[in-house]
Amino acid sequence: MPAKLVRVSTQGLRRFLLEAQALAIDRADEAAGSAAPARVLRMVRRLECVQLDPVAAVERNQHLVLAARLSGYAPAALERLLAQRRVFEYWANAACVLPIEDYPIFEAKRRRLQKQLAPELSRLRRVVDHVVSRLAAEGPLPSRAFTSQHRVHGYWDNQHPKTKATSHALNLLWDAGRVMVVRREGTERYFDLPHKVVLADLLRQAEEIADDQADGALLGKYLRAFRVFDLGDFRFGWRRIPAPERRAIVQRLVQAGAVVPLAVDGVRREYFILAEDLERLQRIDRAARREGAKAAPDALIRFLPPLDNLLWRRERIVDFFDFDYTWEVYVPPARRRYGYYAMPVLAGDRLIGRMDPRLDRDCGRLIVRLLQLEPEVRLTRQLRRNLRRALEAFARFHRADEIEVERTDPEGLTV
């Protein structure tokens, strides 16, 4: 790229990212009280989106992301925003919660998916027509309102068809943007039709927006969500863009002065930043170079869920945090090193280990199967205290009265 590279340190980039993603805030200094829906909405907007996931070893990913950033957060606040139509669910980094005002810029993605899914929807036409007509007359309706004895190959079926035809039709219609999730009760989703959910002005904007305009706005949202990005992401711009086209897009942005290439100390991979963020990054980087390494043992501790926004690019975590993280939920149990739901432990601007939790909901007990620290982390009395406080806060969030730590690494680590 012809533009001059701006040199920065990994520590400066870590601190910049943590500040941008609201993980540099000392939650102990925040005002006490619950995180009201308006405050939660501001956080979703700041992050651009929050990833959804059904895995429930403890609370689900979307709630853990917000709880790590907002004191007093309770899942009911996000559910209320969904019911109030102030956020919606759709494909971004994956299935995500998004501010409702972003509805129009996903229209090109919806159009492409409608075209891609048309053959499958056509094969299920009778079921699809039944679902849509019922939602038109009776919606919103929960997924259990639609029953079928007919089984088809769903997204997660391998050899044999196991998915109800109605369930598969709902999933396809949601992918295509023809139905929307309007509220959740536990694991159950309630569906309705877009024209009954989205404000008329936003529907009109979606109808009128050109594909290239929508894709450009979506790319801008992607860049703001990552803040510091590379060209290796196959979901670049939250679209399937071939590598040569990704490079051409970023080169145009660099030439236009909207994006700046970075030279990161000790890192070979190419990284870029939005020009609007450069001054703030440089200010943080200068302070980081003056101060040197922040003492992680004395810093506030947070447990990050596997699909936290900070962790979306594992390569970036290796490059900036020198931390190799794999979510082992899909790894065979015998081959897991850290556990089914191991959550990275953030202390200050360092990732210092992992915590693998499980919630015994019947007994109100938080079970930590493994609490692991990286070999180079110095275990101090203050670090033990901070880990204990973080575990107690995590247990309170889950309304667990007891904490049981089954195994630690190093052995004998007591908190």
What does the model show?
Helix content is 39%, strand content 19%. By secondary structure, the chain is of the alpha+beta class. Strands 13, 14, 15, 16, 17 and 18 form a 6-stranded mixed β-sheet that branches. The chain has a 4-stranded mixed β-sheet with strand order 1-11-12-10, sandwiched between helices. Helix 13 links the parallel strand 16 and strand 17. Helix 1 crosses helix 11 and helix 2 crosses helix 4.
Mean pLDDT: 92
Strand content: 15-25%
- List how many beta strands DSSP finds: 18
Class from secondary-structure proportions? alpha+beta
Radius of gyration in whole Å, from Cα?
A: 23 Å
Q: How far apart are the termini?
A: 50 Å
Biggest pleated-sheet summary: 6 strands, mixed
Low-confidence stretches: 28-32
What is shown here, in short?
By secondary structure, the chain is an alpha+beta fold. Strands 13, 14, 15, 16, 17 and 18 form a six-stranded mixed sheet that branches. It has a four-stranded mixed sheet with strand order 1-11-12-10, with helices on both faces. It has helices at residues 10-20, 37-47, 61-67, 75-83, 107-123, 125-138, 165-175, 200-208, 211-226, 243-255, 275-291, 314-321, 381-397; strands at 6-8, 50-51, 87-91, 95-99, 141-142, 151-152, 163-164, 180-185, 188-192, 228-229, 259-264, 271-274, 301-303, 343-347, 350-360, 365-373, 402-405, 408-409.
